[in-house]
Amino acid sequence: MTPIEATYELIRRYDVHARKRFGQNFLTDPRVLDKIIDAAEITEDDFVLEIGPGLGTMTRALCEHAGNVLAVEIDYDLADILERELVPLYDNLEILVGDILKQDIREIAESRGKGRPIKVVANLPYYITTPILMELLESRVPLHSITVMVQKEVADRMMAEPGAKDCGAISLAVQYYAEPYLAANVPPNCFTPRPKVASAVIRLKRREEPPVETQDEHLMFKLIRAAFAQRRKTLLNAISNSPELDFDKDTVSHAITEVGLEPAVRGEKLDITTYARLADALSKHYEKR
Asked: Considering the entire predicted model, what is its pTM?
C-alpha cells in the first residue's frame, strides 16, 4: 500500500474530517510527495523533524529514507492514529503531541538529534507559516534545512528580490538566514479537502554565515519591519513613526544620508546589505547616549 493509499484508508477507517482550526489539508498526490523528499535530500544518516504529520502521508516516506524521524502533531486525535498505525511499523519514528511553537527546539536537537543538524520537513497550516519559519531560522539550533509546503503567495515572497512587488520583510529575513529554492508548485487538487489557494514546496538551506555583517542584527530587522509595515511611506517617515524604534527624525535623516541614500527613498527598494549599513549608522546613536 502506497503512502497515499494508506492515507485514504485511514480517512475511511477512522472517519477523519479535516479541522479548519488546525488548517488541515491532507496531501493526496504521490508526485508531490516525491518532490518533497527529493528537495529535502533525506538520507539514512539524517534526523528529520516533521511538523504537522497529519495522517502520516509524508511521515511514511520520511521513515523509509531517514535515520530518525520526530513528528510533532498538535491534533491529539491524529497523533493517536499515528501512534497506533505508524509507530509499530517504523522503529525510527517518534510522535510528539503538541504545538511546535511551544517546543524547545534546541533540546530536541540535543536529545533526539544527537548533535546532527536537523532537517525540517513540514506541511504547515498557512496561518502560522511565518511564525514557525522565523522561530526555526532565528533559534540558532543546528539546522541544515527546512523543506516546507506553504501558500504559493508566501513562497513567492520568500524568493522575491528587493524592489520586486512581492518583496516584503519575510523576503529579506529568509534570505538573510537561508538560501531559498522553489522545488514545486502544487495546485489545490493535490489535497483533500481542496484548499482555496495554490501551494508551493520551498527548501530553505541554512547559510553557514549570513550574507552581510551588522553590529546589531535585532536593530536591522526592526528597521526592515518598520519599512515594510508602512511601505507607501518614505523610509524616513516609516522609521521615525515605528512603535518599535525611538529615533527622532533628524537622527534617522542623518543616518540615511550617511549610507548614501536620498531622504525620499522607500524601504521596499533596499537590499539586506543597505539595511545592515543603516543599522550600523543608527547604532552609533545608542552608543552616544
From this structure: 0.89
Of 158, 144, 274, 140, nearest to 205 by C-alpha is: 144
What is the tens place of the pLDDT at every residue in 9-35?
888 888 887 676 656 677 888 889 899
All 3 cell numbers of residue 85? 498505525
Pair 70, 94: CB distance under 8 Å: yes
Phi, psi of 250 (to 5 degrees): -65, -40
Q: Which of 5-14, 50-59, 109-118 has the highest mean pLDDT?
A: 50-59
Dihedral sign of CA atoms 147, 29, 66, 112 in order:
positive
Long-range contacts, stretch 222-226, CB < 8 angstroms, 24+ apart: 223/267, 223/275, 223/278, 223/279, 223/282, 224/169, 224/172, 224/173, 224/267, 224/275, 225/169, 226/267
Using the Cα atoms of residue 149, residue 151, residue 152 and residue 158 in order, give the sign of their dihedral.
Answer: negative
Q: Which residues pair with 178 in a beta bridge?
A: 206
Number of CB atoms found within 10 A of residue 263's CB: 12
How far apart are the C-alpha atoms of 268 and 261, rounded to whole Å? 13
Residue of 177, 150, 191, 185 lying closest to 272 (CA atoms): 177
Burial 101-131 (b: 16+ CB within 10 A, else e): eebebeebbeebbeebebbbbbbbbbebbbe
